[in-house]
Amino acid sequence: SQHNALFSLPFPNQSRFLTFVMIQHPSNCVLSINSFQVHLRQVSDSLENKVNFIIYVLYCLSHPELLKPEDTFHIYDAFKKLFSSCNYRDMKMLLGQKLNRFFSDNDMQVMNENFPIVQCTFLERKHYTFMAYAYLLCEGEKRSMKRSCKYLSEALQAHETSFAYFSRGRVAPSATEKIQDYLSSIRMDETHSIAYNNLALQFENALNKFDVALEYYNLAIKYHPYDYISYNNRALLHENRFNDRASALGDYESSIRLNELYSTAWNNRGVCYKRMQRYDLALADYERAIAIDSTYENAIQNREFLLTFLRRLSVIGNM
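Now predict its structure.
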């Protein structure tokens, strides 16, 4: 389907929106991780503009055809990190003001307000604004999952999207509620890879239904072959639950091929190599994970444990 979205980008040091980009043909004009970063730099001078950019990205995440497929997970990751880098108090105040307008009697006040997606109904505007506030609560400084869940429920009452069900599933308090929301997300969009991945995690870790988890990881990868996270998670399932290290190594390699900067996959493959007593390869993978993320505690500990083990092995060999 075709989606018409109007997103405005400001010129530097000016708070009013002056330049407009019309997205009319998703196949020709999609959001990539590069354009995401460019837009973010252009709006960084104004909190109002950054909030509008967040709403625009939420709209794109809710309409996957507006995203460059191989960049979907990079965009989602970068989107979540937006909230930890913002001024939490000021953004909460601004989004709170926007939310309060939806409870006033004057609907036209909301409809006339500058909005990053102009071709939206009142309820759609309410949906994306509540979604933005929920993500601020979930990913921002305070990390209030319970309140985030409440506002995502408000967003879903106004307008249903697959991405909103998925988002509420992330912060739902129980495995049962998480599974229900992920299934609702998939019912609305059977290609929602991240929902399949998170559903698999629940069946694996909360319910110990490993065969079902494997089926959902397979579906995540089927519908999104660029899903480096599901490759990594399926590798862990193969290794830890089925003792199938050959399949695990294949999936780790696929994850790393899709995203060479995904330090988690490097570290996890290192663990797999260590268990196979291929210590030189394990050490190299730990080193690569730490080179990507120098604060990666798990990889640092794994490297130190391996080095200590190899030193002891060397001492015993010399006795």
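Residues 297-318 form the longest helix (22 residues).
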